[in-house]
Amino acid sequence: MMMGDTMGTFGSSMASLFFFWATFQQIFPEHLKIAIKEFLLFSDQIINFFSPYIVISFPEYEEYRFNHAFAAIDTYLGAKAIGKAHKIRASQVKESKGLVLKRDEAKVRDVYQGVNVWWEIVTATDGDRTHKLTFHRRGLEIVTGSYIKYVMEEGKSIEAKNKKMKLLTNNPSYNWDTSKKSLWRHIDFEHPASFQTLAMDPVKKQDILQDLEAFSNGKEYYKKIGKAWKRGYLLYGPPGTGKSTMIAAMANHLNYNIYDLELTAIQNNSELRKLLTATSSRSIIVIEDIDCSVDLTGKRRKRDGDLSVKKDEEDQSQSRVTLSGLLNFIDGIWSACGQERIIVFTTNHMEKLDPALIRRGRMDMHIELSYCSFEAFKVLAKNYLDVDSHPLFGEIESLLKETKIAPADVAEKLMAKNHKVDVDGSLKDLVESLEKRKKHQRDHGDGHKKKLGGKKLGIFRGLF
Ligand SMILES: Nc1ncnc2c1ncn2[C@@H]1O[C@H](COP(=O)(O)OP(=O)(O)OP(=O)(O)O)[C@@H](O)[C@H]1O
Ligand SMILES: [Mg+2]
């Protein structure tokens, strides 16, 4: 009954509308209709002119190209005042990280330096979305001067925190094509290493952490002093002391990608340059075992005026990666190829490296990872056995003072056998092994296993 009524009313309204339209068409001549249309458009402009509000649009695509500002705004608004949101979207981008909650609402109000702004997401009929920012004319200077920049930076930093990290390795150059993508292959990086579980001297660890923090927050500082925003770390020490593990911990701490640069797959300096300029910001570029990757030592012969020597040097630099190619890259090309990068070299043989490569300023921090100290052992005991003390700790402490053992070997002894943690058994095992080593080292000197000339598998390459 009611439905019939409603339909009846609707029908008669439509009939009146058609009648009105037909009359309008007959009464008003064409030019008058155009004039009315123009008036309406003009009045719209008048309203806009007198309106105290300004609207800025940020479309998702501009001439078929993705607008990164749109993405940054999306992330910023998604994270904005999540506590006040009515609709939230949840996703998990990294297994090791919790859920990422995003505000999922079409309209969001924001206040910045006392200026009220309103964001609205508008979807066009073709599905393209646009973020519209509305604010009072009074706030124009603040909004265009600093608010938009602030939103972009916040958005990008949230994106960086949530993004999946990647581990990239260079492809051999015969596999390169014209796209930058073909230079590096990547996998998702999900390594559990952290500074918390890294066994080393706690004071040194703290120093490194502070250095990394200062670096990653140092954008303004580096700009002020006019230096490229990069930092070099040289990690050195015997095998199994945690160099690769520390790189993974650094990447996890800063949320940076890792570029594992395999020098032996590179033919010459120009390939090196191509690879390095294709790396992205917020990344760690790693050259493992720099001493045995490429013969970088002794490549810088003294010029003695003999042209043939010069020629020889030039030939070399055309045909292979040289020390000077690497140095040029570290010093020079950096500034031209983006920002916020860390370079890490690792070596087991510090003494083999050319002093030019490791001088301060190129490698800002030299970090020695050495044999297991008692402090480092305590971290491992906590990680593997979940104990802070044990009657055997005293004996282990004095044995560690007299014996050289890599944390990797200690870790192996403490590792659960068949998934069973046996504190007493593991520690006894360790004591026995330390005693054996002590005797061996007393009888034969410390001579830790000499590394073979070639590059061995680091943790990174082990992942492929
Ligand atoms: N300082 C450490 N803290 C915690 N675990 C460690 C440490 N050092 C080594 N380990 C353990 O030993 C394994 C091997 O260590 P890692 O690969 O980091 O050694 P490395 O110094 O890179 O050795 P290499 O010189 O042979 O490349 C790691 O997977 C880790 O489990
Ligand atoms: Mg290693």
From TrEMBL:
Keywords: ATP-binding, Hydrolase, Magnesium, Nucleotide-binding. Transmembrane segments: none annotated. Residues 229-373 form the AAA+ ATPase domain. InterPro entries: AAA+_ATPase (IPR003593), AAA_N_dom (IPR025753), At3g28540-like_C (IPR058017), ATPase_AAA_core (IPR003959), ATPase_AAA_CS (IPR003960), Mitochondrial_chaperone_BCS1 (IPR050747), P-loop_NTPase (IPR027417). SMART domains: AAA. One of its GO terms (molecular function) is ATP hydrolysis activity. GO terms for biological process: response to stress. Gene3D superfamilies: 6.10.280.40, P-loop containing nucleotide triphosphate hydrolases. Coiled coil: none annotated. The keyword Nucleotide-binding applies. It catalyses: ATP + H2O = ADP + phosphate + H(+). Its cofactor is Mg(2+). Signal peptide: none annotated. SUPFAM superfamilies: P-loop containing nucleoside triphosphate hydrolases (SSF52540). Belongs to the AAA ATPase family. BCS1 subfamily. This is AAA+ ATPase domain-containing protein. It comes from Brassica carinata.
